[in-house]
Write a structure and sequence with these properties.
Blueprint lengths: L1 E4 L5 H10 L3 E5 L10 H8 L7 E6 L4 H11 L3 E4 L15 E7 L15 E6 L26 E3 L7 H8 L3 E4 L4 E3 L2 E2 L1 H14 L1
Parallel strand pairs: 1-2, 1-8, 2-3, 3-4, 4-5, 5-6, 6-7, 7-8
Antiparallel strand pairs: 9-10
Helix pairs in contact: 1-5, 2-3, 4-5
Amino acid sequence: MKIKICGITNLEDALLCEKLGADALGFIFYNESKRYVTPESAKDIIKQLSAFTIKVGVFVNESSENINKISKIAGLNLVQLHGDEKPEQLHEINLPEIKAFRVGDNFNFDILDDYQNCYYLLDTYSTSSYGGTGNTFNWSIIPSEIRKKIILSGGISSANISAVINEINPYAVDVSSSLEEYPGKKSESKLLEFFNKVRGNN
C-alpha cells in the first residue's frame, strides 16, 4: 500500500515524511486552505527531495492553464483535482491526475466511469470544506471491485490504519490532519506512530 502525506508546507516535515517512507507528498495550491503553500515555496522544498518521491499538487476548481503553470514552477509529478472538475478538464492538464470524489451516504459510484485514465481518490463529503476535515465516511459502501484501485482519504489515522489495511486494502492512503500538531505543521511523534502501525500490518 502506498502512502501519501498531504498538506506539506515546510522542508523539515517533507524530509521527515520522506525518511519515514512516504511514497508521495502533497502540496496544496488552494488559497482558502489552512495548508496553502505558494508555488515558489513548494519549489524550494521539492528541489531538496529525492527524485523517487512523488510530488503532488492539490488544486480545487482551478483553471487548466494555472494548473499547468504552477505544476511547472513547483516541479510536480502529479496533479490532484479536489473540486468539482469536469471530465473534459483532464485532457487539458499536462501531468497524470488523481481525481478526488467526496463521498456521502448517497454517493453514486457510477460517476467514476466518467473520468478515464486517472487515479481515483475517495474523501469524506463536507458542506464546508473540500478536504482536510479529519472525518471518515462509511467505507463499507465502497464497491469491492474498486477497493484495491482507489486512494482512500478522510480521517485516516494511527487509530484506524490497521482497519483500512485489513478491511479495505486500498492502493494508497492519503493522510493529513491526523498527523499534525496544527494545520500545516506535522507532528514527529504522530508520524512515527503512523508509519510504525503501517509497517506492523504489512
